[in-house]
Each structure stands twice: as C-alpha cells, then as structure tokens.
Amino acid sequence: MRAGSRQPGHADPLVRHLRLSEMGALAALERASWPRSLQASEDKIRHRLGQGHDCIVAEVDNTLTCAACYVLTSQSPFKGTAFPTDFASFSSLPRTEPVMSSYVYSLCVRPEWRGHATVFRVLDRLLEASRDAGARYLVADGRCPSFNGVAEPGPDRVARNPDFRSTIVRWQETGIRPTDEALMADPVLRFYKRYLRCRFLHLAPDFIPEDVASGGFRVIFAVDLGAGHG
Ligand SMILES: CC(C)(COP(=O)(O)OP(=O)(O)OC[C@H]1O[C@@H](n2cnc3c(N)ncnc32)[C@H](O)[C@@H]1OP(=O)(O)O)[C@@H](O)C(=O)NCCC(=O)NCCS
Questions:
Q1: What is the model's pLDDT at position 5?
Q2: With a cut of 70, which residues of the chain have pLDDT below it?
Q3: Which of 36, 113, 188, when mutated, tests ligand 1's pocket best, judged by the most ligand atoms within 8 Å of its CB?
Q4: Beta-bridge mates of residue 157
Q5: Cα–Cα distance measured from residue 23 to residue 56, given in angstroms and rounded to the nearest whole number
Q6: What is the pLDDT of residues 141-156, one digit of tens each?
Q7: Ligand 1 centroid, distance to 146 Cα (angstroms)
Q8: CATH classification of 14-224 is 2.40.50.140, yes or no?
Q9: Contacts 24+ apart (CB under 8 A), 153-157
Q10: 188 CB under 6 A from ligand 1?
Q11: How far is it, in rounded angstroms, from Cα 175 to Cα 221?
Q12: Residue 213 alpha carbon, nearest atom of ligand 1
C-alpha cells in the first residue's frame, strides 16, 4: 500500500462497517462525491440495506469520508449471461447463500480526502470482510471516465482518451477482451488493476447510461480472494 498522508487538522479516519443509523450520512457522502445523476438517495440506501447489503466506511470527525458498499451473493461473476445487466440490478441484488462472491459498488471518496490513503484502507477492510464472510471473489463494476472524459473543472475532471475509447468500442464490436495494458489507459481501471490486481472480465454496455463520462459502460472485474491478495 502506498504511504498514507494525513489531512492537516484532521484525525486519521476510523474504518468500520456502516451503522444502520447512518443512512443519511451515507447519502450525504454520495452527494458530496458523485455527480447528481449518480448519487444514491437515502431511500435507495435503505432499500439496499434491507436487501442485506453492507458498507465499509471511513469516518473523520463524525463525517463519512469514503465508502464501499457490497452484497454477499451465491452468484458467480464467470457465468456471463447470468450477470446483472445494469447497475440498478447489480446494486440491489438480495443477499444470497451459500456465499460465493462479494459484489461491490459505489466506491467513493469525498473530494477533499482524495489522493490520500483512505481509499486503500477501506479497500483493505472490504477485502478482509468479504474473505471472512466466505466469499471467493470480490467483484465490481469499474468506471472508465476517460471514454468521454469530463471537461468541467473539479475533482472528477479527466481527459477524454481517443485510444481508450477505440479499445472499448472494439471490445463491444468484437467481444474480444483487450489487453490489461490497453484498459489501464483509463485512470480508474488502472487504479483498480494496480491496487487489487483484479482480472477484467467483461464489458457491460448501457450498464449505467447516467455515467456519461464512461459512455454508460462499466468494466466488470474480479479479485480472487483465495489467491493471497494483501
Ligand atoms: C476513484 C476514487 C475512489 C479513488 O480514490 P482517491 O482517493 O482519489 O485515490 P487516489 O488519489 O490514490 O487515485 C487513485 C488513482 O485513480 C485515478 N483517478 C481516479 N479518478 C480519477 C479522475 N476522475 N480523474 C483522473 N484520475 C482519476 C488517479 O489518477 C490515481 O491514479 P494514479 O495513481 O495513476 O495517479 C476517487 O477518486 C473517487 O471517489 N472518485 C469518484 C467516484 C468514482 O469514480 N468511484 C469509482 C467507482 S467505479
């Protein structure tokens, strides 16, 4: 893990599971961290928790600074046709047993806390919680914002990458998975690959059309929790 630096004037984050009383706090983190069309409301969060979902959060001074939500499922990410075809389904599956996978979504860090080690501490705890619950795979839907890029100034600004865009379009047209190197041209996919040593599995078109930067695409990836990560 890269060395963490501490935000001046703040305590180190406390990394733990979300409490049921914190649905409003998680919704506030979503509002601070995602463009409006990608935010989960408190009602949506309540529904997900009612489905048996869990969430690892980082907290500083009674404020959530990072979160990663997940649901334990008997599903396998390798049966491509059975995999949820859109984000709404992926993020609202009911918890099922026996646990095979931990399906993870909505990883985010409050903008003022980005670039520090918070996200790695949350990911480490998520790996540990998923493994302890008996999951063999951690599975997530990776954004790829350099497909269209984000031109507006702000923390989400990212350059549009025409080569990466061609890689994704070709993948969709041919069904042939690109090399890891080609996918790692995108900063978010590179982040996941480097830290989680994940395997990119399949391209999910129209997974979340509201994610305009990613062209609605998500790259579904898996981490083999039995392979000694971390
Ligand atoms: C993705 C995210 C969780 C990473 O946390 P973080 O604290 O920013 O992590 P870091 O600062 O260590 O950045 C990790 C890498 O992600 C890249 N990255 C993430 N989002 C980026 C963006 N919008 N533009 C450019 N780079 C981005 C960084 O360049 C960095 O790559 P590098 O190490 O090669 O420079 C955080 O940026 C975030 O909350 N983004 C908005 C929500 C989101 O996109 N979540 C991903 C869901 S799939």
A1: 43
A2: 1-11, 79-81, 228-230
A3: 188
A4: none
A5: 13
A6: 999 999 999 999 989 9
A7: 12
A8: no
A9: 154/111, 155/111, 155/114, 156/35, 156/213
A10: yes
A11: 16
A12: 23
CB 49 within 8 A of CB 106: no
Q: In whole angstroms, give the CA distance from residue 126 to residue 158.
A: 27
The residue ranges of every structural domain in the chain are 14-224
For the chain, the farthest-separated pair of C-alpha atoms sits apart, in whole angstroms, at: 52
What pLDDT is attached to residue 227? 74
Report the distance separating Cα 105 and Cα 119, nearest Å.
14
Q: Which helix (H) or strand (E) holds 172?
A: helix 162-174
β-sheet bridge partners, residue 54: 70
User: Looking at residue 4, what is its pLDDT?
Assistant: 39
Tokens in use for 148?
A: 């269209």
**Host H or E run for residue 70:** strand 63-73
Residues 6+ positions from 189 with CB-CB distance below 8 Å: 142, 143, 144, 183, 200, 219
The confidence score (pLDDT) of residue 229 equals: 54
Residue with tokens 């075809």: 85
CA–CA separation, 107 vs 140, rounded Å? 9
